[in-house]
Write a structure and sequence with these properties.
The chain has two domains: 204 residues, Rossmann fold (3-Layer(aba) Sandwich), CATH 3.40.50; 154 residues, 3-Layer(aba) Sandwich (Rossmann fold). 41% of the residues lie in helices and 14% in strands. The radius of gyration is 21 Å and the shape is globular.
Length: 380
């Protein structure tokens, strides 16, 4: 792994560290690229995010003293602009990982933003909330949207440069803020944890094959549509994730669907190595799960939308479907089963998303911003 130039004081910023998802994996990759850099965030709950963060220098805002908010970060929505602006980071360059708040952290130094998407709840509210959201949520968001958009655009303008996780996000940044950005795909991190069987899943599967859906359980992830595609069929589906949709999904799932959450890296490896394929119907800004499946030589069945277009090569690493509905997903699964897949070709595709490449690009961008700062200072 390449390391950053030691003379540059780099700090890392992230919205909140309360979950185990793709963004949190990216932050860990940033921390490996810039060793000993502190990580600033609004909320930090070690028990619900990746355990590696417990060994890092994480510095949360004062809002973190409220235990309920650490466990329920969405309830903190009206408070997060104030929490964000209360954080001042003393560094030459702040490497900011965000989809909503960390770009508002203050710093006397330079700010490089790695953007997963401009805030979805502000610019794509209908998709974010989904059809099943309550009237109270819709009213609250409608009231907050106008002042939060003003705050968000002001925060975006405080950055020196934006990096976009995918081409769809690059366009969204232009639409929301009116400026350009550079695409830098997120890395796939090879987990070195030994394979760890999941006893409950092992017993439930009974040696049968299965499909795998890994997702935060949010409306726009369309996990209910994936579950619907497997409803009362002979194929088995394992869903891994947590989120506000969990209880509703448990009520609608059929007996051939198993729901799991909070798995270790070794347990995830166990699932990836044994599944037929990964299935995803989400409106994804970046298609990380197919890359993880591809590392293990497994194909994917994904929605032809957004970030998946950057990470899935049709016919080589996966099959697309055009609408997030059970019928389309089911037809795509049939197509996948009728195709002969070549694991080495799938694995070769993944190499372009290596963490080494990601780290090198980040270090180059940080160094470039810092050198321009020095040049401006000397020219005065």
């Amino acid at each position: 792994m390449t390391e950053a130039e030691p003379t540059i004081r780099v700090a890392i910023a992230h919205d909140y560290l309360t979950q185990r998802g793709g963004a949190e994996k990216v932050v860990l990759a940033m921390a490996r690229a810039f060793p000993d850099s502190p990580i600033y965030t609004t909320l930090f709950e070690p028990s619900t995010t990746f355990p590696e963060f417990a060994d890092l220098d994480v510095r949360p805002s004062r809002l973190n003293n409220i235990g309920f908010l650490r466990k329920n970060h969405r309830a903190a929505l009206p408070l997060l602009p104030f929490a964000s602006e209360s954080i001042t980071i003393d560094a030459d360059v702040v490497l900011t990982s965000t989809s909503g708040w960390a770009h508002g952290f203050r710093t006397p130094g330079r700010k490089l933003v790695y953007c997963y998407s401009p805030a979805r709840w502000l610019y794509e509210a209908e998709m974010y909330l989904g059809e099943s959201s309550s009237l109270a949520k819709r009213i609250m968001l409608k009231v907050l949207t106008s002042p939060l958009r003003r705050w968000d655009r002001r925060a975006a303008k405080s950055a020196d440069r934006y990096l976009a996780i995918s081409t769809v996000v690059q366009k969204r940044i232009t639409d929301a803020y009116g400026f350009s950005s550079t695409v830098l795909p997120a890395p796939f991190t090879v987990d070195s944890a030994p394979e760890e069987p999941i006893a409950d899943a092992q017993a439930w599967l009974g040696g049968d094959s299965f499909y795998l859906c890994i997702s935060r359980l949010l409306p726009y992830k369309n996990v209910d549509k994936v579950i619907g595609a497997f409803a009362d069929g002979s194929r088995k589906l394992v869903v891994v994730g947590r989120g506000p949709e969990a209880e509703r999904l448990r009520k609608i799932k059929s007996d051939n669907v198993l729901m799991l959450s909070d798995l270790s890296a070794g347990q995830m490896t166990w699932l990836y190595r044994r599944c037929n394929a990964v299935v995803a119907a989400s409106y994804e800004d970046y298609g990380l799960t197919p890359i993880e499946a591809g590392y293990h030589g497994k194909p994917s069945v994904v929605l032809r939308w957004g970030g998946f277009l950057d990470t899935v090569e049709e016919g080589v690493t996966g099959v697309y479907f055009d609408q997030p509905d059970p019928e389309s997903i089911r037809a795509a699964v049939h197509a996948l089963e009728a195709t002969t897949w070549v694991p080495p070709k799938i694995q070769a595709h993944v190499e372009q998303f290596s963490e080494e490449r990601f780290a090198a690009e980040l270090i180059s961008a940080v160094t470039d911003i810092h050198e321009h700062t020095i040049e401006r200072t000397l020219s005065r």
